[in-house]
Specification:
By secondary structure, the chain is α+β, with helices and mostly antiparallel strands. The strands form nine sheets. The chain has a seven-stranded mixed sheet, with helices on both faces. Strands 7, 8, 9, 10, 11 and 29 form a six-stranded mixed sheet that branches. A four-stranded mixed sheet has the order 2-1-5-6, with helices on both faces. Helix 2 packs parallel to helix 5.
Length: 727
């Protein structure tokens, strides 16, 4: 009995060993793993897969990392290598990476010196890290960076000190290079540009100050040809002359082209007629209209007609092209009407008062988008803009400026409004005087109310607020800053994709936002509440005083409630100016010619010529293309003291995700919020806490004891059964 049993034992051992070896060999070529983390932080996001799967030219990554790094930096190198392996698996033959040993303590000698020289040439310098050796804390220089090469273009990440946000940094850098080099190369369809122009306009052009109108068609064709030479002949240009009134009516309504109609002018030998001039840019079912002639109402002067500048038209067509095929995306920032300055507020710094600039916001958004500052009074909102940010305007909007904002929304430009209900005004006595708060009324409020949103003239105060640590000279402890509510996880709507993994926010001087039902057709416009306060909040509406020492909650809990703080509206909006005449542009220094100006030819855009009976139709777009409006009653969230330069806090992640969503990039928003610095546990009541604590202390011990009894019982039963079988 012994020898056969021994042979069987050795045979099983050998078979098991062979199976283990074969499994390891198979694992070298058939690699797979399971990511069981909640947000799949160790798996590539869809945005990363898309970024590398569309490569059309080789992309090389050179990683310069010192060897034998102490924890946690050795884990960072391992994570980076696994991440690049995942990228390579998705990208195929166009994606390559290599690690270069730049350690001084190495046997490579000249090769390590050459690697360090290469790193310096690429702009990768060593960083200082702390190392614990022989019970001593020392500082050591180490290389921890990489460069990405795509053609002749280079992007670098000079210091990789943590795994947090590393995939986001890599994907953004790869996408940036990929967009620059290969976006045009991978296009298979042409962008069609159709110029609709009526020959009859040539007769009345000189009469309305547009002397160059007869040459406009040739200049536009030349501008498109110039663009074609710079963009791999991606444009296909066609000119259509429209003379038939029925066709003119059909085309002008379809593409929202302005139609000009004029009466008989016997003295000029001109018969009554109609005409239009505009460009329609079409690509894969998307269309964009660029007017070649526009009309502006100016008091005293009347209607002024302007003709598009061919040089400026090139920029507009390029902007539309970038939006249609996704090379680079521009966003607009309203730079006048009292909005905060992008970048540092140098005037405030010189005067020694708190700044009102948005340096960090400008840096974070500017790393992903091209921010175009838009002075609405002077330039208007350019065509092809994806998103317009309006941050705390304090000066009045004229009806014509509101008309510009409204029509930009009608054309599909998404709008993000960060508003404040009050404007802080310094009191008498300089810095020592108590500030006062005046309600802000710019006229933008009536436009938002028409779309279905109202920002109440109040501040939300909340028991769930930021706690300030008091110095020992003031007794120590914490002081609640009630006007800085902490928006917790249960008050954040996670249904929209870009809001996932946002676990908590801190606001300051935030106003409640109310959704006005019935303002828009609810079958066409969907309203989504994004943020709300806790149910322990109340309002400060009159006599605003933000001194924490004078603030306290209401005596009765019945005065506490919850308030909506942010909304997202999306759908097809109805214009505020539907059925209304186009408002006149306010006269200004740039609108009226200086009487003392020397005589000479008058520019076409300043022409005051007009024809009695001449009408311009189809100038108001009454129903919008699919568009979105985001409204948050808190501009303080954009300020430097509420954001971090790396963009890793939840406040920064939330704002960037909103901007990405308004630009149609939810994938990047999900990627950015995979790893969060704030991940609080859920709030529980004291009874639940005691139950969980008691279970951990006593319940687990009882379960182990009961498990042991069960094992002892089954073993005893097995022994009795065996004894019974063998007598």
């Amino acid at each position: 009995m012994g020898k056969p049993f021994l042979k069987e034992y050795y045979l099983k051992f050998i078979l098991y060993a062979v199976v283990i070896v074969l499994l390891n060999v198979a694992g070298l070529s058939l690699f797979f793993r399971f990511d069981l983390t909640a947000n799949r932080i160790y798996s590539l996001s869809d945005a990363s897969k898309q970024a590398v799967s569309t490569l059309s030219e080789p992309l090389n990554i050179k990683v310069f990392f010192s060897k034998n790094m102490p924890a946690p930096h050795n884990n960072t190198e391992r994570y980076l290598k696994d991440l690049l392996t995942e990228y390579a698996a998705q990208a195929g033959r166009y994606f390559n990476f290599a690690f270069y040993n730049v350690s001084q303590e190495t046997d490579m000698g000249d090769q390590a010196n050459q690697n360090r020289e290469m790193a310096r040439d690429y702009g990768i310098s060593p960083v200082q890290i702390r190392v614990m050796e022989n019970d001593e804390l020392k500082f050591k220089n180490a290389y921890m960076g990489l460069v990405i090469l795509h053609g002749d273009l280079i992007e670098k990440i000079p210091a990789i000190t943590t795994t947090d946000g590393l995939e986001y940094q890599l994907t953004c850098a790869i996408r940036k290079l990929n967009n620059k080099v290969s976006a045009l190369l991978r296009q298979t369809d042409k962008i069609n540009i159709t110029m609709y122009i009526s020959p009859g306009l040539n007769a009345i052009g000189p009469l309305i100050g547009l002397d160059g109108l007869p040459h406009l068609g040739d200049e536009v064709a030349a501008a498109v040809g110039n663009l074609n030479s710079k963009n791999l002949n991606i444009f296909q240009f066609e000119r259509k002359d429209i003379s038939d009134p029925d066709e003119l009516e059909k085309v002008s309504k379809k593409h929202d082209l302005m139609a000009l109609r004029w009466p008989d002018l016997p003295e000029k030998n001109i018969r009554a007629g109609a005409g239009t001039a505009g460009l329609v840019v079409e690509y894969k079912g998307k269309a964009w209209t660029l007017p070649l002639i526009s009309a502006v109402e100016i008091p005293i002067i009347g209607t002024t007609y302007q003709m598009a500048d061919p040089r400026g038209l090139e920029e507009e067509i390029a902007a539309v092209m970038e939006k249609l095929i996704g090379i680079n995306k521009d966003i607009g920032y309203l730079s006048d009407h009292g909005c905060p300055t992008l970048g540092p507020d140098r005037m405030a710094m010189m005067q020694g008062r708190p700044g009102n600039g948005l340096s960090v916001f400008d840096q974070l958004v500017g790393s992903r988008y091209n921010i175009r500052q838009i002075p609405l009074k002077d330039e208007g909102i350019p065509e092809g803009l994806n998103c317009l940010v309006i941050a705390k305007p304090t000066k009045h909007f004229s009806d014509y400026e509101l008309f510009r904002i409204d029509q930009a929304l009608m054309k599909g430009t998404n709008i993000a409004v960060f508003a404040d209900a009050f404007e802080e005004q310094q009191g008498q006595g300089g810095m020592m005087g108590m500030p006062s708060f005046a309600p802000i009324d710019t006229g933008l409020e009536k436009l938002l109310a028409h779309y279905g949103i109202q920002i109440q003239k109040a501040y939300v105060l909340d028991k769930n607020s930021y706690k300030q640590q008091l110095p020992q000279s003031q007794g120590g402890g914490e002081q609640a800053i009630y006007f800085a509510p902490v928006i917790k996880d249960d008050a954040i709507n996670k249904d929209p994709a870009f809001m996932k993994n946002i676990k908590g926010l801190v606001a300051m001087q935030i106003s409640p936002v109310k959704y006005l039902r019935g303002a828009q057709d609810e079958t066409k416009v969907n309203a989504v509440r994004l943020l709300s306060s806790s149910d322990q909040a109340w309002l400060m509406e009159d006599n605003i005083n933000l001194n924490p020492m004078f603030l306290s909650p209401p005596p009765s809990d019945s005065d506490l409630s919850t308030y909506d703080l942010a909304y997202l509206l999306e759908g097809q909006f109805t214009s505020y100016f539907k059925g209304k005449p186009v408002p006149e542009k306010e006269a200004g220094e740039t609108d009226i010619q200086d009487e003392k100006k020397e005589e000479g030819p008058q520019p076409p855009e300043m022409s005051s010529k007009n024809i009695e009976g001449l009408e311009a139709g189809n100038r108001v777009i009454e129903t919008s293309a699919p568009a979105k409006i985001f409204v948050l009653g808190c501009v303080q969230m954009l300020h430097d003291n509420m954001l971090d330069e790396e963009g890793r806090t939840t406040n920064a992640t939330f704002l960037l995700n909103v901007i990405d969503h308004l630009n149609g990039d939810d994938g990047t928003a999900l990627l950015r919020s995979k790893q969060q610095t704030l991940n609080p546990i859920s709030d529980t009541d004291p009874l639940t806490k005691n139950i969980i604590k008691g279970f951990n202390v006593i319940g687990l011990c009882v379960l182990v004891f009961l498990f042991g009894l069960c094992v002892w019982f089954f073993r005893s039963m097995k022994k009795k059964k065996i004894a019974h079988m063998f007598g």
